[in-house]
Amino acid sequence: MTQSTRSLSNYSLYLSLTALGAVLGMLASGYRFETGPLVVAAFVFLAFYFMGHAFLRSVAFTVWVFAFVAASLFYPAAFGTWFGLDLKRLILPLIQIIMFGMGTTLSVRDFARVCTMPWPVFIGMALQYTVMPLAGFAIATSFGFEAEVAAGVILIGSCPGGVASNLMTYLARGNVALSVTMTSCSTLASPLMTPFLMKTLAGQFVRIDFFEWMLNILNMIIVPIVAGLVANRILYSKAPWANRARSLLGVAVPTLVAGIVTAVFVGEHSLAFLMPLESGIIIGLALVGIVALLKLAVSVLLRGPEDWMDKALPVVSMAGICFIIAIITARSREQLLTVGLALIAAAILHNLIGYVAGYGCAKLARLDTTACRTVAIEVGLQNGGMASGLAMNVLQSAKAALAPAIFGPWMNISGSMLATWWHRRPVAEPTPIGPMPETTMP
User: What CATH number has the domain spanning 79-423?
Assistant: First the structure.
């Protein structure tokens, strides 16, 4: 870290503490609702401080989430409607953009790797889709949550592993290759497993249509990831075609035109079969075209850095998740103030069960310590963005989205603490842990 960056980081901390002091002073004077701007400012400056701190950088995203949550609690109308557009309608495309970003970090070899390590992947997949959904069901019924909130707790447990698990595994000295493969495989299985688990466990709380859920997951998750895999080839291929202006333009123009054609004619009889996957296909084609154009501009014409996408994706993903959580919080403000503490306790317990059961069962399966750490993190960390999107777009319930909105930030805090603790305790086995993940998406 440069001296100027360190000074800016320290300045942000002073501003955060000053804002916090002002908040405490106003509360002591009886000014409760007027503290909103200062509370938001305190979190924003604290997030900038964390981003400039090597040790705290991994949880800066969570502080940003707190800033957006504070803003949505104090000013819920700001996250309701903009220029006649209900912001809830942005949740689906934001999730699709985030999943596209996940796809750009993957390649076919990440899926093929299962053939070289089938037993650890099988153990991780089995635990992912048994421990977390069953724990979610037990917690939801034990805490006595109302139906929609209970369904949300089960939903977060029924989703695949989160992308943040790959970074946490690296920091914990785990097996990054195994982590990426487990995340990829559990995500591919989600169109079948998530609807099945929700139908089986949450069907008593809310209505679950298996095929509706399957199609929505294909549209929201799988189609954008496939588009991201295509973009991965465009971005990182060393083949001559991937670095020539004519070739990149030849990719960009047809994909953008195909996206426009799909958007205009999908309702027609000739394209009606695409309707369940319409938005995913449109977003995917558009983003592939945009990536090709950006590579043409940044890498070929301007001779910019090759890792420009790796730097941009984490920012886009974090901003998207923060905005989604703010939209959800604004719509369920009263419920959050009522059951918030219970949901926080449920999220902490759910996450802890995932870590403990994941590590313990992997140990019983005779996996090495590096793999045990990987499985524990994979099982404990869930795809909160996917759960939030399904809650809002399929269940049509902001109450059901509360549990994913709380679980997501908490798992980043707990995952960072666990990864740091394990990082300081190197494993004895000389197992290769793999390279640093290309992105730090939440």
Answer: 1.20.1530.20
